[in-house]
Structures are given as structure tokens and as C-alpha cells.
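FORM 7B - TANDEM STRUCTURE REPORT

SECTION 1: FIRST PROTEIN
SEQUENCE AND C-ALPHA CELLS:
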Amino acid sequence: MRPAPPRERPRAEPAAPRSERDAATRGSSSADLHAFRERTLRRGVNPCVYWPLRAVLLPAFLIFFRMQRIGREHLPRRGALLLASNHRSFLDPFVIGMMTRRPVYFMAKRELFQKRWQAWLLNSLGAFPVDRGAGDTAAIDTTRAILERGDCVVVFPEGTRVRPGPLGAPHRGIGRLALDSGVPVVPIAVIGTEDARRGWRIRPRKVRLRAGRPLRFPLPERASPGLAAAVTERIWACVSLQWEWLGGVVPQREAPAPRGPAQARHGRASENSSAREEAHAA
């Protein structure tokens, strides 16, 4: 009796290339991100979540963080508004929200929307997702739509958290938003939140915020990249001014180069000439 021939193992289908698998995963998550953005535009913040949580967080921040809010008189109570701030901690959107007496909306990185319960909570509090590594135009369009309906949006021109040390370099998206929407932009600086978190522990640290006067820019016929960059620099200079007022670290400025003997003689000759001219005029 002949032994049965060995059974052939079914060949495994070749795995899809990594790029295709990533694209499929990205496509499904992109649909979820779109749904969260649509919910932000249709419903806004969830009042049953936002206001009770704010009522709890405000006294907690005032006591636990000894939060100091400076310049709140510069924040309009109604109408479309852009808040431009530096970014040091995940707490920044929440402490900035305590500066105003109305809900604020803000972008949050897409990774924070992977867990359903966390995504629902953040979305209920005014957060909508942004894909930071892909030039997410959908998130920018969502920001414009929120401004068009007269709400308040927090934007972090640095694009990501920067800690410690001086402020980071801004991206020109804030300048383009200001030019496209024509809404006032309030520069805000936050200091102290970078030391408040260690892992999942929140430590008592003094947190201070300072808001400057609103900046207004005319609506151009065409917002060129150069004009958007110039407006961004103007906004960021005002944020840096609030940052320095709070005692934040500023970048070291280069000392003037030492003058050589010839330059020194030329400088003394100029000073003597100016002195003789002043004496003659007298």
C-alpha cells in the first residue's frame, strides 16, 4: 500500500506593499478625521460638556496653577477672533480658553483622535484634527469656516510644542488666515505650562498668560506668500513682546564686532567733526 502523497501547503498571498497598507489605513482614518471636522462645523462645542468642565477647571487652574491672566480687556466678547499663541504644553489650549468668556476652537494633532473616547471629548471641547505632516488644507478650511460664523479660534504658529528655551520659528499659515478672513488677531504668550506635566502627573506650577492689543490687517485682493510671511512676522513679534514681558527666555543677540584701529580713528574723527560743527552752530 503506497503512502499518501504529501499535501501541498496553500501558498500565502503576497502581502500588499507597505505604501499601499499605509494608504489604506490613512484613508480610513482620514474619513474619521473628516467626520470630526464636520461635527465641529455643524454642532460646535457640546454645551453639556464644555460649560460644566469649564466651571470645574477654572477654579482648579486658579488655585492649583496660581494662574494669572493679564490683558483680558483686549479680548472681544463677540465676533470672529484669532488668538495667536506660543505652544509649550498640551495644557495651553485649555488655559488659553480660560482667558475668554466664550468657547474657543483649536487644532489638535490627528494622533489624539485615535482613541474614541478621547476623540469624542476633545471634539466636544472644540478641538478638530489636523494632519501636521501633510499640509492639511482641510483643517485650514475648517478654521476659515469657524471664523466666518463669528467664533474664536486658537492657532499656534510654531506648529508644535517648543520647550524649553526661546520661542520657535512661526509658520506663515497664521498670516494667511489673518489676510483671508480679515478678523482681528490677538497675540498671547503662555509661560509655566511646560513645567506642569511630567508623564501623566500634573504638578503645581505658576502659569501666567498675557494678551496684547488686537491686530487688524486689510483684506488684500491676493494674499501672496511674501505678504503672508510679513504679516506672520508682525504677529509673532507681538507674541514675542508678550513673552518677554512675562520673563520668557529670549534668543541671545550677537554682540557688535570689535572695531579695528582704523575704524576707531575714523569714529573719533567723526565725533570730533560733529563736535566742531555743533560749536560753530552755537
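SECTION 2: SECOND PROTEIN
SEQUENCE AND C-ALPHA CELLS:
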Amino acid sequence: MRRAVVIVAVLAVATSACTSAKNSSATSTTGQPSTTSTTPSTTSTTQAAADGAVAALPVVPCPTSYAAGNNPHPFVPNELPAAVPARGLRFYSNGLMTVLGPAGWACSALVAADGGELLDVYPPGQPDLSVTVISPGSQVVQLEVDYTGHGPGAGLICPLFPDSPAATFESGLPCPTLPPAESTLRLTDDVVAFSDPPGVRGTGAGSGGPLRSLGDAVYPQVKPAEPPGGVTVAVLSCTLASNVDPLCMSIQADFLVRQAPVYKGSQG
């Protein structure tokens, strides 16, 4: 029941945000100026859900860079079930991380030596975004997974959970602050939705340019205290041109189901 509340809340937030004005200079998936803004209609997936059935979408395998030569080649299925409206979408996965993204795009992933993981979905013909700095205004769906037991993971998540154990890095450095124009909404104890308006360089990958960036962060709030190794956290960013921006609603909803707050240890 709790998951259903989260999904309904994030869809409401995204739907409200989608009614805001889009930047007229946003580019389409082909890289050309977008002259129209089209909202994907509901699909057979919606009807299938109403009929009690589940639609399946193809899965695009993502090439992955592994640190220190560690290359496990995890299993990637050919299809996965979709529980959200899915017209114009495909799954992208490296077997460790899976996200929805616009159909026909490219993807790549990175597994770092310190345990951090990154998967990026972006228009075809671009360089590997998982190993480059993403410039403001880039179209990208990004999933970043880390853990709060070290500085990079704590720094990734603490701005969205400023009163959490991750709010002070292991080195004692203060937690970064969010830009004033970035809006956030605490959906549950463990989930925060965020929105970076055009021109605001904030949490979202690709934010700071002419495109709006939406996303969600998942951080299991382990009580009474976080363990020494921390907990696994995840941040999804969805930065798309105006003609495909509505797809972010389904991308976020799938993420919140697929990446529900999980902690494998004991809470004491």
C-alpha cells in the first residue's frame, strides 16, 4: 500500500509540473529545435492494466565499464513487464541497474572501484555519458546508485535528506546545499522528489540548461542509527526535451517501484 501512495504522489507532482511552460528553444530527440510539444497518449499498456494483464517491453542491453578489470557480465533479459503507461519507452539495463527511457536511444553504464554505479540513457550518436561530465541542457535519463558509508555516496544523497546521518561526510566536510530554486517534496520517510527548473544547476543530471530536470531519490532511513558501512541509495534524473518530457512521469513511477527502499541488515 505504501508503494502505491508513493507512485500516486510522484505522478501527481510530475503531472502538475508538466503543465508549466516549456522552453521554446528545447531540442528534440533528433537534436533539432522542437516546434511542437506532443504528449504521448495512453497505450495498450493502460488497457492491459485495466484488464488485469501486464504488458512487456523490450530491454536494450547497456555496455558497461568496470573498474579494475572486474567484468561479471550479469544476465540481461530480453523483455521485462511494464506496470506503467509505456508508449514510446523501452527498458535499458546492464543486469545490475534497469530504467525506462525513450525508445531508440543509446545507453551505457559504469561500475566504479569504490562501489558506485551509474547508468545513462541518451539520444544516439553521443559520446558515452557514463564516463564524461554531462553538460547542462543534455537530454539524459540517469540512474546513480551508491552507499552512504563513504564520501561520494553521502554527498550524492545528503542535500535531499539534510537531517540524515549522511549529512556529514566521513571526512567531516559539510553537506552541499541545494540551489534555492530547486523544489523538493518528501514523498515518504525514504523518498524525495525533486525538480530543477530551466537554468537551475541542481541535483538533476543535465540540469542548468534550457531543459527542466525531474527526479527522485531513495534513501532507506534505518533506525535507530545507520550502520558503519551505510545503506544503499539511488537517485534518478530525467531531463528531456519538451516533446518527450511527459515520459518522465512513467520513468519516475517505474523507478520508484523497481528501486523501493531496501536494507538487508538488522535495525537493531
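SECTION 3: OBSERVATIONS ON SECOND PROTEIN
The chain has one domain: 2-21+59-258.
Residues 2-21+59-258 form one domain.

SECTION 4: SIGNATURE
Preparer initials: ____
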